[in-house]
Amino acid sequence: MSQLERQMRHRDKEMVPKILVQGMFALMIGSLGLVAYAQWADVPQVGVLEVSAVVDSRNVTLTGDRTGKYQVRDENGMVIASTADEKAGFIGVIGRVIDRERRVFGVDTSGPITVARRENGNIAIIDPNTKMSIDLIGYGKDNVAAFEQLLN
């Protein structure tokens, strides 16, 4: 065995200490145990989004290209927002998500979507073609505001 082989064998043993691997498996087993207990004991779920009724909505059409430049048009075809607007880049992100979902389902990519304000104050993007609904929570206030302005 050459000196390089001995050195590599020694190095490989030290790259991931045994205690670290044991700790990782202990965390996995502990997590599994906690989830199993919560299911068997019927512990109520917390932090789960509750869908509430829509109190205000507007149908809009997102048109864009592969570069992420999107425009939002109202029912009459007027441009009411664009990703070129200040702090409106998130519109392009959602536009790409909707386009991809529609391609997966094989439906028309040019149909309207609904921007809705729910009773609980959340803003939601609803695509009637794919039945996809995205409640905009945890995306940041500027990103939510880009869609909230469409309702005003």
Fold and architecture overview:
- This protein has 152 residues and is an alpha+beta fold.
- The chain folds into 2 domains: 38 residues; 98 residues, no CATH class.
- Helix content is 39%, strand content 22%.
- It is built from 4 helices and 6 strands, in the order ααβββαβββα.
- The chain has a 6-stranded antiparallel beta sheet.
- The radius of gyration is 24 Å and the shape is extended.
- The mean pLDDT is 88.
Summarize the structure.
The chain is built from four helices and six strands; from the N terminus they run H-H-E-E-E-H-E-E-E-H. The chain has 152 residues and is α+β, with helices and mostly antiparallel strands.
How many domains? 2
Question: Whole-number average pLDDT?
Answer: 88
Query: What would you report as the Rg, rounded to the nearest angstrom?
Result: 24 Å
Strand order of the largest sheet: 3-2-1-4-5-6
Task: Using the alpha-carbon principal axes, give the shape.
Answer: extended
Oligomer: single chain
**Overall helicity:** 25-40%
What is the straight-line distance between the termini? 76 Å
Low-confidence segments, given as residue ranges, are: none
Give the topology string: H per helix, E per strand.
Answer: HHEEEHEEEH
Please state the structural category.
Answer: alpha+beta
Query: What's the number of extended β-strand segments?
Result: 6
How many H/I helical runs? Answer: 4
Strand content: 15-25%
Main sheet specs: 6 strands, antiparallel
